[in-house]
């Protein structure tokens, strides 16, 4: 049996010629792959014979076409797939993060925001799903009843492939430490987070304020905007404030892939903590 660096079992195969990648002539294979006991269809660009390190380097060079590598030891064939879960199996071949553990800052096509975000805090660094991954769901960290309520402290997006398979990575940006995690809210199969609405309590100097309380999303197919689905973790709202208008939606052929949050630092004894106040989400093609 052929040895695969990323195990694949072909049950049917069709191939045709495609354009050259660098100095290599390529072809496309349409096949079904058994991976982690799950069958899925994939479209692999077969680059040709080369070493593992050359295959990994080629994946980096043509990152717009490569998310996953299948390397067949027996034939030394390099195969690139842009639709599966991205892997880091080749990190040891030419340094760390050869398959890019995160997207570059410029790797998005739109920023989603809302107009009702809270006033306090500073914007944290943006965080992204791994290259080739998109948000298929989310969860929150919320502080329950407390003398100084802060409510929403963390938003974490759950990342998956274009086939909507979960890939194991998440992104959360800045966060505060209070509260407990909710369960996960996941989009219907083969849909992704594409817009959001934020519930925020307006600041009132005469009482304890909480900033942002809850976030909800809409899920949509990657390739069209014919249908969308509201997604929230039950009960779908927080205790304080009101939900604002929905953000714009990611353009067709893109979905949410990262976020940055506005977080107020701990204020100390006797001062009002509001934790997470606002958030922006990034769309990627």
Write the layout of secondary structure elements.
Elements: E1 13-21, E2 24-35, E3 38-49, H1 52-61, E4 68-72, E5 77-81, H2 91-94, E6 110-112, E7 122-123, E8 127-128, E9 134-142, E10 152-160, E11 166-171, E12 180-181, E13 185-186, E14 192-200, E15 212-220, E16 228-231, E17 242-243, E18 255-263, E19 276-284
Antiparallel strand pairs: 1-2, 2-3, 3-5, 4-5, 6-19, 7-18, 8-18, 9-10, 9-12, 9-13, 10-11, 14-15, 14-17, 15-16, 18-19
Give descriptors for this structure.
mainly beta, 5% helix, disordered N terminus
Mind telling me the C-alpha Rg?
22 Å
Order of helices and strands: EEEHEEHEEEEEEEEEEEEEE
Biggest beta sheet summary: 5 strands, antiparallel
Strand content: 35-45%
Report, as a whole number of angstroms, the end-to-end distance.
37 Å
Q: Per the principal axes of the C-alpha atoms, what is the gross shape? A: elongated
On the 0 to 100 scale, the average pLDDT is 78
The largest beta-sheet arranges its strands as: 1-2-3-5-4
Low-pLDDT residue intervals, each spanning 5 or more residues: 1-21, 31-40, 88-102
Give the strand tally. 19
- In which range does the helix fraction lie? under 10%
Q: How many DSSP H or I helices?
A: 2
Structural class: mainly beta
């Amino acid at each position: 049996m052929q040895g695969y660096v990323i195990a694949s079992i072909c049950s049917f195969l069709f191939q045709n010629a495609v354009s050259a990648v660098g100095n290599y002539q390529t072809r496309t294979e349409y096949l079904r792959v058994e991976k982690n006991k799950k069958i899925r269809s994939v479209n692999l660009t077969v680059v040709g014979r080369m070493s593992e390190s050359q295959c990994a380097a080629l994946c980096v060079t043509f990152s717009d076409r490569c998310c996953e590598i299948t390397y067949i030891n027996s034939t030394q064939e390099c195969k690139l797939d842009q639709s599966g879960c991205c892997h880091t199996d080749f990190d040891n071949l030419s340094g760390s993060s050869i398959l890019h553990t995160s997207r570059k800052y410029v790797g998005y096509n739109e920023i989603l925001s809302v107009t009702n975000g809270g006033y306090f805090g500073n914007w944290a660094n943006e965080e992204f799903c791994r290259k080739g991954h998109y948000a298929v769901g989310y969860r929150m960290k919320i502080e329950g009843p407390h003398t100084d309520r802060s409510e929403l402290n963390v938003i974490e997006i759950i990342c998956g492939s274009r086939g909507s398979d979960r890939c194991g990575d998440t992104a959360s940006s800045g966060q505060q430490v209070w509260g407990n995690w909710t369960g996960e809210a996941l989009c219907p199969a083969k849909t992704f987070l594409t817009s959001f609405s934020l519930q925020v309590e307006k600041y009132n100097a005469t009482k304890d304020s909480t900033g942002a309380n809850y976030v909800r999303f809409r899920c949509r197919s990657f390739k069209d905007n014919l249908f969308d689905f509201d997604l929230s973790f039950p009960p779908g709202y927080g205790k304080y404030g009101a939900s604002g208008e929905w953000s714009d939606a990611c353009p067709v052929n893109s979905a949410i892939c990262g976020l940055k949050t506005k977080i107020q630092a701990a204020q100390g004894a006797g001062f009002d903590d509001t934790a997470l106040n606002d958030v922006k989400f990034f769309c990627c093609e």
